[in-house]
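Record 1 of the preview.
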Amino acid sequence: MTGGSDWSDRRASTPISDEWRPKRDRRSKKTAVGRTHDPHRIMPALVAGIHGPPLVPRGPAWVAGTGPAMTGGGGHGATAAHTICWKKVFSPVRPHRRAIEYGLADKKAPQQPSRDDILAFIAREREAGGPRKIGVREIARAFGLKGDDRVALKRMISSLADEGAIEKRGKRVNRKGALPPVTLADITGRDPEGELIAVPVEWDEDELGPAPRILIRAPRRARPGEPLPGVGDRALVRAEPDPDAGPDEPRYLGRVVKLLSRARHRVLGVLRIEPNGNGRIVPIDKKQAGRELMVVAADIGEGKEGDLVSVDLVGKTRFGAPRARVRETLGSITNEKAVSLIALRAHDIPDVFRAEAAAEAERAKPATLHGREDWRELPLVTIDPPDAKDHDDAVHAAPDPAQDNDGGFILTVAIADVAYYVKPRSPLDKDALERGNSVYFPDRVVPMLPERISNDLCSLREQEDRPALAVRMRVTGKGRKIGHSFHRVMMRSRAKLSYQQAQAAIDGRPDEKTTPLLDAVLRPLYAAHEALQHARNLRAPLDLDLPERKILLKPDGSFDRVVIPPRLEAHRLIEEFMILANVAAAETLEEQRQQLIYRAHDEPSKEKVTALAEFLQTIGVKLAKGQVLKPANFNVILDRVKGMEHENIVNEIILRTQAQAEYTHENYGHFGLNLRRYAHFTSPIRRYADLVVHRALIRALRLGEGALPDMPAGELAETAARISAAERRAMAAERETVDRLIAHHLADQIGARFGARISGVTKSGLFVRLIETGADGFVPAATLGREYYSYDEASHSLTSRSGVSYRLADIVDVRLVEAAPIAGALRFEVVGGGEKRTPPSSAFGKRAKGPKKAERARVKGRR
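->
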């Protein structure tokens, strides 16, 4: 074998990978060589076995033998008839190296360990981060015990367990008073640094003293769809002793292995008091509707009738009903703030800043001009919703005077300099990271930063000096960016405008504030936007212009009405300016080789694209397969169906085909915007990701204090995962709050009829959305009629044998049957709609059900 001796010389001393596991050769009944992840760790011993005497080391060893070739060729010089076979054996004449290292066993011969030897071995294995499981087998192997010696060892371990010196659970043993490697723990709070603290669920304080605390290390990468741990959660935690812990610090470091369902141990609900003094809890979760919990009078605490309470599950009554104990009373459900409070508590969204963070915010002083460029004469303006309280971006545009950019523009986007006030790893920073972003409810805002920072020092108020991080960009007359630069400045906003104000001025209806700004400020902005619009059309991002509903409340906080604000050109202007600034930030950081957090959006999965193509085929539209997928492919389809009966359903399904955008330290582009690199830079008051990008720019361009500290890629990945999870949490809370408000509004309209659009189709029924209010509800399939309905996934429809079909995006008339305001759930029945269509070939393509089977299926569905 050519080159074999070189391999042997270089790697003969390298131990064979423990990841390799021997396999059995069924023909020879000998252990045969298996696969390894690193062939270089197997080959030295293989070569030595061929060119010299077999390697038979002592102790845990790899022993060579021969057996029939299993690969058909016996490569690397072996004959076709035989190949070298390896098996792992343990020498009976030497204990395991760990017991020898600890000084608990002799090198030459095994000996029965003493009681103290076993206890010392268990303790040192845990301290050294040894095997996750320590049992009789592991201890016997460590001390080199066989046969009768193992029997004696088992008796000694049982004796130690009886004495209470160790704890024995199944085949595992652990030192008394020490946590097992994996323990069930409740996350009870945070330390002064903001890190999570947990305590074991099972702990005998009378015998062992106070339960040890576990410092939870946040995961580096969140699993998709799985929330990050928070206070009040119960989790499986992998814990290990912390040798560096001080007297008052947690004794263990832990990592969450699995976050258990909060419904298993904690429930939010409304307390109802019974005449006998006991109570029952009506859960707020839709999925737990009808599953009330019982509370004995002694466990109600200070709760009163109608209070929103948080309860712990403590067992079952003698009749089998689940029993709970009130842990926290959150106030009356009749309070106008209760609806959003439910979402805050259900999703563990912190709404009170820690004392240290609040104090830091109050101590903050306005920034000075030191170290900044003076841009106070530049007529920047803010354009926001009329009810906005914090203003974090201002814009300006002017013709580019450079001769090499005839017809071009200089665009300026100035963003509030939050990094100046919120220093890395400060109390303010830790609270901001925990929140991840601001959360917007119809009746309140839960800000990422205290109001002293978000609404005062950082908000770009009209005619007030404010620090900013600004980007100046040069674009051509066709909207292509040809250069940009970042600056740390002091600015002064000329005017605070609403979208409606700016649009009205351009449309010929200026008011007192916009009249003096029209020619010098607003017209250049709109001219620059026209150029950017040209570049946008060439880029061809995904063109889904989806309306957003907004709930208006009455002065007492109750529901008033739902409106869909019109989409103005002013909205698109600000959107395009912000996108260009975000791209400039990502490009600058990449050029400076500075790590950052990207805003990434992956292309749709193959499975979703296939499902979309199958649906489009049912309406005569073809989506070419096998080509490089781009947003323009979807735009062509959207343009083709515009104005047709299928427009709504095609828009809906294309939206559902898209992946979910996320924050990540790895760049894979933004599919929806059709951009190769993209980062959020323009909203650091309300998004933590933008604050990280600001700090990265300050560091990369040496712009002064507040720079991103040294941070390993793993920590940045962890931060990206945490804020992605926080964003999903906020979206869910906002959506559920809207559902509860509308359900409360409709609760006294049982029996009323509404126009609705089908927003989802499943085997069990239809999801519908009311056209007027946008309220979501469900229509069970069993209420559709006496016929049997078959579900067709490709066409997103339920179809009867007679051809009556309900398909995604169809318009139907529904009647409200039931409303559960606390859960935000509505149930309807269809009273009009449904179209006569030819049943899909797949709907009844299988063995048809006879009339009796169809009737049984219909009755079963009603149950």
